[in-house]
Specification:
Length: about 400
Amino acid sequence: MADLFPAGREPDPDQRLEARLAEAERQGRPLRVKLGIDPTGSDIHLGHSLLFRKLRAFQNAGHTAVLIIGDFTARIGDPTGKSSTRVQLNAAAVEANAATYLAQLGQGQPPERSLLDFETPGRLEVRRNSEWLAGLALPQVIELLGISTVGQMLAKEDFANRYGSGTPISLHEFLYPLLQGYDSVAVAADLELGGTDQKFNVAMGRDMQRHFGQRPQFGLLLPILPGLDGVQKMSKSLGNTVGLMEDPLSMYSKLEKVPDAVVEDYLTLLTDLDTAALPANPRERQKAMALEVTASRHGREAALQAQADAAALVTAGAGGTGDGPQADSVPEASLAGLAFPLKAFYLLSALKVCASSSEGRRQIQGGGVKLDGEKLSDPNQEFASAAELAGKVLQLGKKTFRRLVA
């Protein structure tokens, strides 16, 4: 936990979470713990998973997780952390993303293999905020707008920075924290989870609940997980993520290489391991973390196999021969649909190993790309056909491996 508010010392159950919990226990009712997610993309990464792990802890303690799919607010886009107005998504794109989110969270899977418990009665409500937001009449919207001021909005760091630099702020962006706050009213939340960058939005939920005569929720904020670079937050746009849907080998290989400075953060935030019982050796702690996180997503057996395969790939120079892993243990990348002849730098972007052709060129020039254990040195090296590449293993850095198939 990075922050809890309010965190007063008095016994008032509206000022101390412990008192609210004790009151709920006396009354025999679970707390309603809210977490809102806007399905603006298709993938969830480990950075997002901190919130879901905490939500699952409340489920396991007998409380009700209220997971709000922001299918309406996603069409506005959360301005938090953005230096410009976000592109607005259409309803079809949002709903498609929502379906993939729920699958990644474990819908249809047994509780022991999923991030959230979808099966135990009373432990989870999945709501879409279009249920109450899509039908708001203009007088109701005006009422919401009257709860906050322009000064309060411009005090929000992201808005303040954009206003100060002359970057346009669209009026509809001011609606986002108001509508997100109204979600807390609609579901009568006792507690809302969020990252430290969401404090403004969570506090707005408290303001909304006061306005509509409800007991204000508590805000429980979690740290931001550092990305694989160990410096910036885990973010897909920065290319430093581990996706929940990544195969065991890719997941383990990435986690095994995170910088020493963030291994303890990963152990604390992503696992339930007793860190005091782990070996003192930093490398062994790193491997234990990678194994445990991979096992939490894919099972212990698959994680152990990924650990063995990662070691074999390094030893065998990623060639997949001799003591290397079996062919089917390395993720495949299809060459179908690529127009040959093509150059090496374009191959990396076409297979989505790199985000762009220019990044592919930089990786090759930096010596970070191998093909069947042989370093590629010329980004303009040309491959005549798919047959020339089929069956070979493409390696980017120490973390990413793809077996090329025709």
